[in-house]
Amino acid sequence: MELNVEYAEENRSRVRNLLHKLWEPYKQVPLLGWLLAASVAVLLEMFVGHPLARLLGMSKIPALFGVLLILKTPGLIPSTLLYLLLIYGLPIGITARLTAKLTNLIVAKLYDTSTGISLLIHIALLYAVLHLWTGINDYRLLVVKLTLIAIIITLSLNVINGYMGEFSCSHPGFIALGAYTASVFTIVLFVSENRFGEAVLPPELGPYLFPIGLVLGGIVAAIGALLVAIPSFRTRGDYLAIISLAFMFIVVSLFNNLEIVGGPRGLSNQPDYANLPTIFVWTMLSIWIINNFVRSIIGKALNAVRDGELAASAMTVNTRKTKMVAFLFSAFWAGVAGGLFAHVIRYINPGTFGIRKLAEVLAMVYLGGLNSVAGSVVGAVGFNLLSEALRPLEILKWIIIPIMLILLMIYRPTGLIAFTELNPISLIKPKSMTEGEVDNAAS
Amino acid sequence: MPLQFYLQQIVNALQLGSFYALIALGYSMVYGVLMLFNFAHGDVFMVGAYIGFFVSSGLLALANTGIIPLADNVMLGLVLVLTLFISMILTSLVGMLIERIGYRPLRGAPRASAAITGLMIGIILETGNLAILGPTRLSFPALIESVTYVIAGVSVTNKKIVIVFVSLLLTLALHQFVRRTKWGMAMRAMAFDFVVVPLMGISINKIALLTFGLGSALAAAAGILFGVAYPVLDPYMGIIFGWKAFVAAILGGRGSILGASLAGFMLGFIEIFVAAIFPSTMRDLIAFSIILIILTFRPHGFFGEPYSAQLRL
Fold first, then answer.
1. DSSP tag of A191
2. Minimal Cα–Cα distance from A159 to chain B, Å?
């Protein structure tokens, strides 16, 4: 018996060693290498995905890494796994490994010339991967769009709930304000025969002026945030949570009563301006700005207010200004995300922004991790992919996801990646070489 | 508008306020003792209503067999009382189960994590109900034969009288329990100091179970009374009621039974009178605006203490 246990132990450690050995060379692959490998995989899927899927007995390319397919018809598990291995696993593994030296060199050169350009190249490559991947079918496109928007929402809520440490429930309200404002802006200006009359401007201008609508939505949401921000001077914690909750109900009820924007029937016919590049640019912009915000002095002031308001104010932190700025900033981005959301779905009604939305948004923040930009991105992407992937389970989905979140809360109460700082520069550093070698390679 | 109109609205408001008050008590106790937002409480109300449905259906079926020879009126009354009693016990078990599984592992965790857990437990209860019973709405059996009395031009049904009476009775009973009994004293002590009191030999886990059990029992009573008044049950009925009662509980002040009850009735009054005077769609808008204003100027609720040194329960 004991021998058996020992044997199993030995076996396990052998497996671990093997995995370790396999993973060892990949430690040297820089981010650029992974992106390059991913683009090879999506290119491969674009050209041979269809025939391969047919060959393996699937009617079309599996949309979300085959999860949907597996859950619908479990008989296809082997062929789906084979497909994943052939299209994603092997190409990514091989390319990343083979190009590691080359990409490291390129990254080192870029890193030395200009980190900004290097970052831009990374982002462009990421966009290319997403563009090719979503080009396969519209379902993927929709999922990616909504996920990118969810990233903005999660980040903005993390500013209040994570960095400032309040439990704000008002986010659906901010999102609704932004969504309605941006929708009214584009519909009034660019949609002919809309509910408000004729189009004011030629529709060709629409996509160019769309950002103005989004910013307007953000500004209106920020003005709405004053209603929550001003009481936050006097009270904190639980009572602020109630105030923000009341704010959310007020906004939803307000739109229910505004007949001019459709009342409970909602507002539809938003022009189709929110395409993938637009959303991608806004998302990257929001990550960049919010990341800089929380790493700036005011971001640190937020943390100080969270950890001890009196102490912070004794240390010359202007707590009122800090709270105000945080609320307005957060609401602005939620409003922008709302505007994008309205133009993706192209139909909004007050019911969209209710308690369910709140539960979803909070779940994303606390899944990813408080006080962490990277965590928010992980949380938004993870939650969205999970909830899409489990769609075939229909109603059971809403039992499985909550159970997973409860387990997460029990074992990691602050979320997956909490209390970290995201330094984009460290992401794009070459991996294999030490600092000295980088200098050598550059010279 | 005539005086009768307002009196009528007062009667309606008392009925609506009874539901809010009963649910708010559960929120308020858990919040007072454990400093937790039990966001699943609205769905416990829903579960209580469903348990009440099954219990009362079973009892009625039993009564119809004619084993126990009693007059119809007496029989219905007996069924109502038994339904209340059995459902309250069963639902309090549900509440304790929630505490044991969902909240106890999070005793030391950040409070927001517990709030998320509560939200998720609520979703599980709703979806579980939907998955087991299907989307068809159930209609609650009529446990009270409706009789309408007209007093000075105001029509009062016997249902409303029973609802308000039972709700006040339960509130009073809870108040007495918390004031007079040893267990109630332990709860008050726990609300007073979360850290030292466990050192005095009071088990925090037992008190937590008790708190959840009592709160859930009251929610079940609210659910059954709701079923008596509006005999249509659906899995999502607890959401909006729960959140509003939650707001009322906080408005009452931390851990204040009187405050929670009062705020529940006040919410009922605001909603009924707004709906009576303005278009009824404005109800939430005005009700929550009033709450926002109250909390802006009285940030710790009616009976809450600004710096939680002295706490009432």
1. -
2. 15
The structure tokens listed for B18 are 């009874």
Domain membership of residue A96 (yes or no) is: yes
Instruction: Provide the domain limits for residue A9.
Output: 2-134
- Condensed to tens digits (0 to 9), the pLDDT of residues A253-306 reads 999 988 888 888 888 888 888 889 999 999 999 999 999 999 999 999 999 998
Residue A27 has pLDDT above 60, yes or no: yes
Optimal mutation site among A409, A412, A416, interface B, most CBs of chain B within 10 A: A409
Is position A432 within any domain? no
Do A106 and A201 belong together in one domain?
Answer: no
* Number of domains observed in the structure of chain A: 2
Q: How far B42 CA sits from the closest chain A CA (Å)?
A: 12
Determine contact: A405 vs chain B, CB below 8 A: yes
Check B124 against A396: CB less than 8 A apart: no
Structure tokens at A293: 């915000």
* CA pair distance A258, A174, nearest whole angstrom: 17
Summarize the confidence of residues A314-327 as an average pLDDT: 90
Whether residues A294 and A382 fall in one domain: yes
Hey, are the CB atoms on B113 and A363 less than 8 Å from each other? no
**The predicted structure's pLDDT at residue A266:** 87
State the ipTM, two decimals: 0.85
Our count of domains for chain B comes to 1
Neighbours of B303 (CB within 10 A): 19
Residue B309 covered by a domain: no
Q: Give the residue numbers spanning the domain of B99.
A: 3-297
- CA gyration radius, chain B: 20
Which residues in chain B are contacts of A247 at CB distance < 8 A?
A: 288, 292
Residue B310: inside a domain: no
For the cut 50, the answer to whether the pLDDT of residue B311 exceeds it is no
3 state DSSP class of B300: coil
Is A341 contained in some domain? yes
Same-domain check for residues A370 and A273: yes
CA neighbor of A140 nearest in space, from A193, A61, A87: A61
Domain presence at residue B71: yes
List alpha helices for A24-62, DSSP H: 31-55
Q: What is the pLDDT of residue A18?
A: 86
